Amino acid sequence: MASSATGSSFSMAALSSACFLVLIGASTSAQLSLDHYSRSCPVLFPTVRLIVGAAIAREARMGASLLRLFFHDCFVNGCDGSLLLDDTPTFTGEKNAAPNVNSARGFEVVDQVKLAVEGVCPGIVSCADLLAIIARDSVVILGGPWWPVKLGRRDARSASQAAANESIPGPMSDLNELISSFRKVGLDVRDLVALAGAHTIGLSRCANFRDRVYNDTDIDVLLAQVRKFGCPGVDGIDDDNLAPLDFRSPLTFDHSYYSNLVQRRGLLHSDQQLFNGGPTDLLVKLYSRSPVAFRGDFVASITRMGDIKPLTGSNGEIRRNCRRVN
Ligand code: HEM
Known about the structure:
Radius of gyration: 19 Å
Shape: globular
Distance between the termini: 59 Å
Bound molecules: protoporphyrin IX containing FE
Structural class: mainly alpha
Strand order of the largest sheet: 1-2
Number of strands: 2
Mean pLDDT: 92
Order of helices and strands: HHHHHHHHEHHEHHHH
Low-confidence stretches: 1-29
Number of helices: 14
Largest sheet: 2 strands, antiparallel
Helix content: 40-55%
Oligomer: single chain
């Protein structure tokens, strides 16, 4: 009884903060706005949605991969489309940085979206904004919450592999490292716990959970046993074998990620750090009980993530092809 009362008051808080955020986005945001392309590209949203929907219909996991691209873009010098730039003989970008190489995927879908949007509104919509809309549509299509996407970002003319290696937190991170990497981009502990819920969809490679299933002690014995099958305990062997981050429902954006953590069934070491006797346990418990609280906070936090250091005004450019500067 007491816990459901707590859950519902949190839910109200989450709901009202989401509404408040919508109002701010609509009226006072100095840089990004909800109606940025409403005149210049009125068919933007249905165009993106069509391509993303088709990609996820072909392969449901793609929704997870596309959501992750937005995170990996925003954490490296802001949401500026820098992740999407290909390496050239004179330029080393982010795609081959450690967190992305053999891992970040979905770039072809971003190309398809860009091509379609250039077809209806040439030279208008940035790749950075497309990543934000693609991420939202992916979450919605897989059963998660909808949110209004703030737009008006412009595209970077450069990218930094070193910054990608430095800024994207790794799966071996402990809680303090996770908190500090989020704090560096202006996000707080609540943002960390809410955004980590993105691991309710998608897959991880064995290389990223091997150490956890063989060496961690805060892991459910059965989960460890099952995951060892597909992931031999020797570095370099079957590194790319895949397992779901959320074993219950890897293709549905729900809140079961948090119930897994409460049962010590987080797949990554960094996941389980959020429920390990520390200060984030309470939030994990809340989200495990209340899908409404999770959805409200996820929307608020991913909106904040999308606000990280956008290029606006005369900074950056609107790329014609997301893979290279104009
Ligand atoms: C909190 C720190 C985080 C860490 C340490 C982390 C780490 C990882 C790792 C190691 C993988 C597996 C990659 C692979 O094996 O190829 C992964 C997958 C994924 N991550 Fe995160 N992540 C974090 C936060 C986030 C956030 C904030 C989001 C989005 C808002 C996100 C979305 C995803 C998704 C959707 C996948 C599955 C991708 C796919 O199936 O292609 N992650 N993450």
